[in-house]
Amino acid sequence: MNNEKLDISIVIPLLNEAESLIELSEWIVKVIEKDKKSFEIIFIDDGSTDNSWQVIESLKEKFPQIKGIKFRRNYGKSAALQVGFEATLGEVVFTMDADLQDNPEEIPELYKMIVEQDFDLVSGWKKVRHDPVFSKNIPSKFYNFIVRKMTRIKLHDMNCGLKAYKSRVVKSIEIYGDMHRFIPVLAKWAGFKKIGEKVVKHQERKYGHTKFGLERFIRGPLDLMSIMFISKFGKRPMHFFGVLGTMVFLIGFALSMYLGIHKLVAVNQGIRIERITQNPYFYLALLSMVIGTLLFLTGFLGELIARSANDRNVYLIDKKI
């Protein structure tokens, strides 16, 4: 691949979206060529079982700006975005979904917000959505409300597929699991705090069907908890586990000391009381000290792993063009 710097890179992950790729490519090329910017379109085929890759190969012959990466199997959207980000050459990087629900006409304005207003990241806001109300719209609003409160990032649509980034943002973050939902959080954690938002037009799905099922309602909250923990304690786990472990241990130690002193005072005064081992509080104290010790050791091991482990994900790429 040519390593010459470009104005724009567009990363498009896809899974079985063969029907929409031609129309989407022609639309993007038309918009950007009108704006007279140098660009590339990088399709990441996330293990499609239809003829999506064959369509990408045919599009490459028509549009030299198109590039493609095909996974040997389905790894998920986060993996596709991570590999796509690593391949980008553009000064401004866009992400879009391949289902034609993101409007390429928004690209020039998003580009200006990055270049002229110096935003690190601009996220689209699908203020008017053409999705089912109960299965998508209401859960999305609730989810975004919770994420805004927890992360203090004032975005109305954290998971919008249409986003624009400075190149150094996408080169500085690592996406894995289902963390694609929280790229603005990862960016903020990496030190890119100028995050903007733009209302974008949401298109109705024209072909195929959504690839996200009910499992996203379970994965989303779990990933949010993970990223909140990692953002605060990922590089210093001892600050969490060590402090928590010490507090739990001291509670158990204080309780055991109280039981011991109480027993000694009773014996000294000739008062008959039950053995310490017959008191249920003794076992609570013992359990607290054991759990506290384990938490402290967890923090210690976490520090060793954080300082020495190379946890980069490796994805098997089948083909490139």
List keywords for this structure.
321 residues, eight-stranded mixed sheet, 14% strand, 49% helix, elongated, Spore Coat Polysaccharide Biosynthesis Protein SpsA, Chain A
Notes on the structure:
The chain folds into two domains: 6-233, Spore Coat Polysaccharide Biosynthesis Protein SpsA, Chain A (Alpha-Beta Complex); 238-308. It is built from ten helices and eight strands. It has helices spanning 18-35, 52-62, 77-87, 107-115, 133-151, 167-170, 183-189, 216-233, 238-268, 280-308; strands spanning 6-14, 39-45, 66-71, 90-95, 121-125, 163-166, 195-199, 317-320. Helix 1 (18-35) runs parallel beside helix 2 (52-62), helix 5 (133-151) packs parallel to helix 8 (216-233) and helix 9 (238-268) packs antiparallel against helix 10. The longest helix is centred in the last third of the chain and has 31 residues, at 238-268. The protein is elongated and about 95 Å long.
